[in-house]
Amino acid sequence: MALILVVDDEAGIREMIRAVLVGDGHEVVTAKGGEEAVGLIAGDTPDLVLTDLAMPGMSGVELLRHLSENHPDVPSIVITAYGSKESAVEAMRHGAVNYLEKPFDVEEMRLHVRRALRHRSLTDENRELRTRLAVERDLVGRNPAIDAVRELIARIAPTDSTVLITGESGTGKEVVARAIHRASPRADQPFVGINCAAIPAELLESEMFGHERGAFTGADLSRRGLVETAHGGTLFLDEIGDMPMAMQVKLLRFLQERRIRRVGGNREIPVDVRVLTATHQDLPELVQAGRFREDLYYRIHVIEVRMPPLRERREDIPEFVRCFAGRHAARMGRGEPVIDPAFFEALASYDWPGNIRELENVIERAVALAPGDRLTADTLPAEVLAAARGPVAPVEIPAGFDLEVHLDEERRRYMEAALALTEGVQKRAAELLGMTFRSFRYFAKKFGLTTGRTADQDSAGATAAGPPRGASGEE
């Protein structure tokens, strides 16, 4: 079932078309002129428009022009008087998919309606496919939470709904905003981002809404603000939780009226933008603390997209690493890096408080420090390696503990194991343990480690020994 708008100044024709289409299972609304049709379209976008061309007031061609500018995906069929094919051709230049000449055959009308709705269905499917492909390209990873974000973006991108993107710093909130813009009907229009935390409070209003000449000292020329610059496209307000309270009032007014007034001006300027916002802060908590307006929160919190921290999607780290390593290696004029397994293991053990932004910085550092095209764990920062080694177990010292006796016991155990592996050859056992032969023979004698091998078999010419250098036999 489709929603079809029928526009004709003749009540009889309107009712006849409505009766036929309702009988075919469609929902039909009617308008007696172009102005009324525009109001109905603003309230609920139809799947198809059938419109007469010759009407008092707004003509059918003007209505088609409005549709092509504001709802380009909505197909239209025009109804024209007999012998007015030139008008029909003009209408098709403005987006009509077909035309009917009065008096028209009902079955012919049904055929045109079915074809137009099939065309609309194929257009919707193609747009959804393009949207999903764009989102797949922009968002890295296969974690279930990221799959859910992709699915949500694909559903909301074609709409004009306001979106609040939440998540810790560095999780990729701006990437999500850009993905929504690129997958939206506004993709060929500007994407303008404003970091509300980076602009001083006294300059934020001028940056956002612009100013007129002479509005303040140094305002020698009138200047458009970033909101005006985004006209027709997407406005992204990053770190909106840091916006001063005075600016929150002005932003709320703009969101309600979609009009701005430049600083020092008295002219209201209409602006058509889709608004996306982002924050790493808990906005409900800020509302409770009186630092964020409750009415503004509900205005921007139409749809929420939450970006998970990197520690909740560790399985995506290798894909990020390969992406960042290839990008920075190419920038530095190097070949595609080979990445050691130990490198990945170390990264997976770290909690990434700075999230994806921190990971990219670490990978850039590793590529820069690597002696060749291989990334090894020794190119990673100390805090990442420390996490890979794990926490150091606390040392417990029992009553009556004797460190020298403990060290001798451990030394004896390792020496016995080395002799067993080397079939009793002391020289080879010493090499295995990284000891000098002289030191090994001293401790072997001290511990009574007999091997069944003669001294000559071990080392012809080795000197019998007193203790090695160092009071406790240390090398």
Judging from the principal axes of the Cα atoms, what is the shape?
Answer: elongated
Question: Which bin fits the share of residues in helices?
Answer: 40-55%
Q: Report the structural category.
A: alpha/beta
The appropriate CATH architecture of the largest domain is: 3-Layer(aba) Sandwich
Low-confidence stretches: 458-466, 470-475
Radius of gyration: 37 Å
Number of strands: 14
Broad CATH class of the largest domain: Alpha Beta
* CATH fold naming of the largest domain: Rossmann fold
Major sheet: 5 strands, parallel
What fraction strand?
5-15%
Give your account of this protein's structure.
There is one protein chain. With 475 residues, the chain is α/β, with parallel strands linked by helices. The chain has 4 domains: 3-124, 3-Layer(aba) Sandwich (Rossmann fold); 139-213 and 223-306, 3-Layer(aba) Sandwich (Rossmann fold), CATH 3.40.50; 311-389, Helicase, Ruva Protein, domain 3; 404-458, Arc Repressor Mutant, subunit A, CATH 1.10.10.60. Helices cover 48% and strands 12% of the residues. It is built from 20 helices and 14 strands. It has helices at 11-23, 34-43, 60-70, 85-93, 106-138, 144-156, 173-182, 201-209, 226-229, 245-257, 283-288, 294-300, 317-331, 341-349, 355-369, 382-389, 403-421, 426-433, 437-447, 455-458, and strands at 3-7, 27-31, 48-52, 76-80, 98-101, 163-166, 191-195, 234-238, 259-261, 268-270, 274-279, 303-306, 338-339, 374-375. It has a 5-stranded parallel β-sheet, sandwiched between helices. Strand 4, helix 4 and strand 5 (98-101) form a beta-alpha-beta unit. Helix 5 (106-138) runs antiparallel to helix 7, helix 13 (317-331) packs across helix 15 (355-369) and helix 14 packs across helix 16. The radius of gyration is 37 Å and the shape is elongated. The model is unreliable at 458-466 and 470-475 (pLDDT under 50).
